[in-house]
Amino acid sequence: MTVLVVQNEPECPPGLVGDWLVEAGCELDVRHPYAGDALPTLDGYAGVLVLGGAMGANDDDLLTWIAPTKELLRDAAAEEVPTLGICLGHQLIAAALGGTVARNPRGRQVGVLPFGWTDAATNDRLAAGVATPRRGVQWNEDVVTELPPGAVLLARTEAGEVQAARFGPVMWGVQHHPEVDAGIVATWVSDSERDELAERGLDADALLDEIAAARDELAHAWAPLAAGFADVVLGEPGR
């Protein structure tokens, strides 16, 4: 039961989600298109995981693998191959299926932030197992501003930004980063990133300390999401 993993840059690995999927019985085939890996067809894959990255979901003309990744996601939707997108991956699904991704007009979301589950989440095969009060690591500038036709909103911020959605019977996206720990996020904090956060009155070290302090909380919160996705991939009965 192999899951095709699309990793969009070195600093955004499968991380904890990858570990949890393997623990649940999945095998991972991690492709690195930024390093020249070709994206395969879906033949032989039981699932797809598309990870985050600093690039944009609309960067088709700037990066050679963005358009092929969207095509892969359209194929996954059409063939009902279980798929999970994280942050950029979530945005790529939305863009591929006819939604809109743009810079968040309210500014960046960074830190450990609460989830605002919708009523639809309680009846969703994947979200139902986690649709109780919990927090997740947000680190983004772009968001899905309009869901594609037929998508179901599963979670949103108090201001209304999309946090999670179901894009098809077995296709989901989450805007947060269930896969990270403070060590992974630390690789994202360049000097320019640190300066940009400071301009907003945010301390990068304090944010990293917050993520580190919440490690056990976050693992408890999001390991069930990965386990639930593994159940879908492995063909286990749904809720």
Give the topology, please.
Blueprint: E1 2-6, H1 15-23, E2 27-31, E3 47-50, H2 66-79, E4 83-86, H3 88-96, E5 100-103, E6 109-114, E7 135-140, E8 142-146, E9 152-156, E10 162-168, E11 171-174, H4 182-186, H5 191-199, H6 204-213, H7 215-234
Parallel strand pairs: 1-2, 1-3, 3-4, 4-11
Antiparallel strand pairs: 5-8, 6-7, 9-10, 10-11
Helix pairs in contact: 1-7, 2-3
Most strands sheet: 7 strands, mixed
Strand portion: 15-25%
CATH class, anyone? Alpha Beta
Kindly provide the radius of gyration, computed on alpha-carbon positions and rounded to a whole number of angstroms.
16 Å
- Figure out the total of helices: 7
Shape: globular
Strand order of the largest sheet: 2-1-3-4-11-10-9
Let me know the number of strands.
Answer: 11
Residue share in helices? 25-40%
CATH architecture: 3-Layer(aba) Sandwich
CATH superfamily: Class I glutamine amidotransferase (GATase) domain
Please tell me about this protein's structure:
With 239 residues, this protein is of the alpha/beta class. The protein has seven helices and eleven strands. It has a seven-stranded mixed β-sheet, sandwiched between helices. Strands 5-8 form a two-stranded antiparallel ribbon. A two-stranded antiparallel sheet has the order 6-7. Helix 1 (15-23) crosses helix 7 and helix 2 (66-79) packs across helix 3 (88-96). The longest helix has 20 residues, at 215-234. It is globular. The two termini are 20 Å apart. The relative contact order is 0.17. The model has no long low-confidence stretch (mean pLDDT 96).
